[in-house]
């Protein structure tokens, strides 16, 4: 903005009005002097300053953008004194920038002088705006002393007293007595209306999903996953040895070596890992580890068990990738040409060594975890309950209050199935130790402790998944979809995403189970001649194999029938799974 200063008193003295060109030159010449002589007047405090000014200066401001007149184009601020009038006019150009000017004139006189100043200001504005029609001058409002004063009206929306008077809560808090307040609280509706909201049908469904529908579906999913893991474990102990024996028999009878298929290479690789794991675990002194762990306090037991459990989950997650690499190398070795044979052999051997080292490490971790659980069960100072409570609630804390996606919850349910199978292997270890070393009646105590461990694990899984689904907006029908994917995996049906499959490598648990059951069998062998002892060894192995094979057939066929029934049911009632 620019300030222009002129002396309009020549109007009263009869001096001829200068031409328009001379007035422009005069304005340009004195522009800098006007800036130095007259400071810029702020918008808001103008009226206040002028109201207290004793010199009688009148300040008038006009704006096209912010107006308080009816046409919304002019904003005028006037201060009335006894002597002179100061007019501050802001003109806004039509261009985008919106530059304007401030003009200040000192007028000695009353209403007539003010009218002349206003008309002259309008002429200046017409010059600046070009073809824009000038606005009509504002009509002065008469006051007692004959000067002009425009007053800004207070907006009704900013009238604080009116707003407070219309607020019923304000009147309520000010004018109501304590007795009236108490009576109004009694008859005003729900007592918790200020801290709770009225629920809807959706909220009711959410409550019943959390309490009833989702726990049932979650437990069915985890149980089916447990039996899938058990079926893979039995396949490792029954199907794999049978196929290896058949291959060796064919090789001995045919006396001709043929290239092994990918499945046969995988079987031989897994058998080699299992044999090495059992041999190395057989060299471990379980009694020494048991007494070392038993000498620790309850807090140390809790810490040791948690550390072992974390390492177990890491090994379980990484073990699937290791064996997928091994099976990929076996597939490449079975189908490669003679030129690339040496490359694939080196690759298969390196992957086999990695899988062997990893499985042995995982086997030792599971063995130490089983010994820790056995120590807590055998102890008579409630160490088992302290361990279960602290460990399970720490699991709830680490999972429930985090944001999980649908795929993460899917994988978490599979991890709970694998964890439940590992707990079953640990309880089998405890049973074997009691058979070998316990004295007196111990079976009832073992059954009670096993029931407590399984019940706590089941309860924690239900609570964890119920609130995970509640906080992450997972419907119970999603768990039915998880179960459908697991059933398709059981039937070897191709799914859209193979990462949703349950991954479980039973080699480490098999090493632990064979290690703990071997002393039980050895303790019941007769101390007789070698042939008779070998006969009993073969007999016990055969009986165990038949029992495991029968159990494998029962569980495998049961899983196949259940998977077929459930997949067909989902196809028929795809949109009605909520009512199962």
From TrEMBL:
Highest taxon listed in the record's lineage: Eukaryota
Predominant cellular place of this UniProt entry's protein: membrane
Residue spans crossing the bilayer: 220-240, 260-282, 353-371, 502-524, 530-551
Record's subcellular location: Membrane
Bias kind Basic residues: ranges: 20-32
Biased composition (Polar residues): 1-12, 51-64
Region (Disordered) residue spans: 1-64, 124-146
Membrane protein topology class: Multi-pass membrane protein
Alphabetically ordered keywords of this record: Membrane, Transmembrane, Transmembrane helix
Entry's family note: Belongs to the TAPT1 family.
Name listed for the protein in its UniProt record: Protein POLLEN DEFECTIVE IN GUIDANCE 1 isoform X4
Species of origin: Gossypium hirsutum (Upland cotton)
